Amino acid sequence: MSDTTAKEDGTTTRAALAGGAYQKLLAFAGLIVLVVGFSLASPSFLQTANIISILQATSVNGVLAVGVTLIIITGGIDLSIGTLMTFCAVMSGVVLTWLGAPLPAGVVVAIATGALVGTISGTLVAKAKIPPFIATLGMMLVLKGMSLIVTGTKPIYFNETEGYTAISQGSLIGRMIPQFPLPNGVLVLFVVASVVAWILGRTVLGRYTFALGSNEEAVRLSGVNTDRWKIGIYARAGAIVGIAGVLISSRLNSAQPALGLGYELEAIAAVVIGGTTLSGGRGTILGTVIGALIMSVLTNGLRVMSVAPEWQTVVTGLIIIAAVYADQLRRRGAA
């Protein structure tokens, strides 16, 4: 790649990172408004136990959202992340409970399964030229069926796997600060988010991720193997989804084969709320984490206020529609 192209890619990356600053500020302001509103509506909202519950819920959705952020920045989409998360949890359960493998093996298998499925999805998109929406929709159904087939439609429990629940529910910080037992799952989210943010801002992979979303054809004409990079991005996103699979199965102490559908929509909504545009080329991990917190605060706040579950679903759907519409307005304003 020429020096001129490299400079252009670097400029694109910096502009993409800076371009979402206003949206991040709006998202953060929205988060504050929600917290204040629910605190006034219910005194129990700001209790330590409830805050811990919100953060723990955010850990799973946040990790999923971080993974799909990589794909959305390239201008793609992945509707399979919810069922892939479940399938990764199932494969971890197979290795740990059925085969009796040690704990690290189960975690590695979950992440490797996610990376493998991500590679397949990326190949379908990059090589077979199947639209990302269709490719990942098909993968979503395949993975849903595979989870049910492998488990025989029955959950896999991790009761015999010592230390598995501590991955998500344990608290290293709580040992030092008993008054605030922050779950390990939240630490995992922060670590994953920090690593991916560094990749996007400091590495060649990050520059190409933004460049593919901004103008894939220009990148291809500059001599870059865009298919290879795109497949690599899908694979890395899949590995991150594998981590989410470990977190949710650790939190539930089981791999639930029927779980997963719907998680992809909340994750994508979090990404869009955080300022990543669905057309690609712009987005930040910090914005995504803020978006994930907004989704968790909203869900928890409605539950604390005893809003009926069916109305919670309605509100979540409206939030997703509003987030996509706001993204459309941003794109028109940038045009």
Walkthrough of the structure:
- With 335 residues, the chain is mainly alpha-helical.
- The chain has one domain: ABC transporter involved in vitamin B12 uptake, BtuC (Orthogonal Bundle), CATH 1.10.3470.
- It has 14 helices and two strands; from the N terminus they run ααααααβαααααβααα.
- It has a two-stranded antiparallel sheet with strand order 1-2.
- The protein starts with a helix and ends with a helix.
- The relative contact order is 0.20.
- The model is unreliable at 1-9 and 15-19 (pLDDT under 50).
- Which stretches are poorly predicted, pLDDT < 50 over at least 5 residues? 1-9, 15-19
Largest sheet: 2 strands, antiparallel
The tally of strands reads 2
Tell me what the CATH architecture is: Orthogonal Bundle
The proportion of residues in beta strands is under 5%
Tally of DSSP helical segments: 14
What count of structural domains? 1
**Global structural class:** mainly alpha
Radius of gyration: 20 Å
The helix-strand sequence is: HHHHHHEHHHHHEHHH
Brief summary:
The chain has 335 residues and is mainly α. Helix content is 76%, strand content 1%.
Question: How would you describe this structure in keywords?
Answer:
335 residues; mainly alpha; ABC transporter involved in vitamin B12 uptake, BtuC; two-stranded antiparallel sheet; 2 strands; disordered N terminus
Note the topology.
Elements: H1 3-19, H2 21-41, H3 48-73, H4 81-98, H5 103-126, H6 132-151, E1 156-157, H7 166-169, H8 172-176, H9 184-202, H10 204-221, H11 226-252, E2 254-255, H12 263-273, H13 285-304, H14 309-334
Antiparallel strand pairs: 1-2
